Amino acid sequence: MGSIKQVERSQLQEQINALNRLLSQASGLPSGGWIRRMRKALGMSGAALSRRLGGGRTQVANLERYEREEGVSLRNMREAAEAMGCRFVYAIVPPSGSNVESLINRQARKKTKKQIHAAAGHMALEDQSLSAADQRAELERLSQALLQKLPRDFWTPDD
C-alpha cells in the first residue's frame, strides 16, 4: 500500500488525465477567442455584454482582442464568463496524446540516463563497460527506483 502522498498524487493524476482526455476533443482556442465564441453562441451583441460588464462600448472589443493576443487576465475572463451566465474554466494539462504519468516517466528516464552516462564513463576507464542490454535493464531499474521516491531534486533542471 502506498503512502498518503502517493495516493493523493495518483488521484490528482487521474483527475488531470480525465480532463485532458475531455479537452483533447476540443480544437483549442477558437480563431476569435472564447469570449467571442460564447457571446455569438448566445446571440449576445458586444454592446449587450459591455453593458452587463458595466463598461464602455469598446470594452468587449478590447477584451476579445486581448484574448486573441493572449494578454487578457484570468479575472477578466472570469468576469466576462459570469456576465454571460457562464463559468470560466482554467487548466494546465499535459500535451495532447500524453498524460501526467508519461511526463513523470520521461523525467525519470532523463535523470537516470544522465546517471548511467556518468557511471559508464567511469566504468569504461576501468574496462568494465555494460552491454547495451545491461544498460537498458539498468535504466529501467534505476528509473523505477527513482519513481518510487521522487526525490526533492526530481524536477530540478539538469545542466
Descriptive account of the structure:
- The chain has 159 residues and is mainly alpha-helical.
- Among the domains are: 34-83, no CATH class; 100-155, no CATH class.
- Helices cover 64% and strands 0% of the residues.
- It has 7 helices and no strands.
- The chain has helices spanning 4-23, 34-42, 46-53, 59-68, 74-83, 100-125, 132-149.
- Helix 6 crosses helix 7 (132-149).
- The longest helix has 26 residues, at 100-125.
Percent of residues in helices: 55-70%
**Measured distance between first and last alpha carbons:** 35 Å
Q: What Rg, in angstroms, do the CA atoms define?
A: 24 Å
Helix-strand topology string = HHHHHHH
Question: What's the story with the biggest beta sheet?
Answer: none
Per the principal axes of the C-alpha atoms, what is the gross shape?
Answer: elongated
Q: Please, what is the average pLDDT?
A: 87
Strand content: under 5%
Contiguous low-pLDDT stretches (5 residues minimum) are none
Count of runs of 4 or more consecutive helical residues: 7
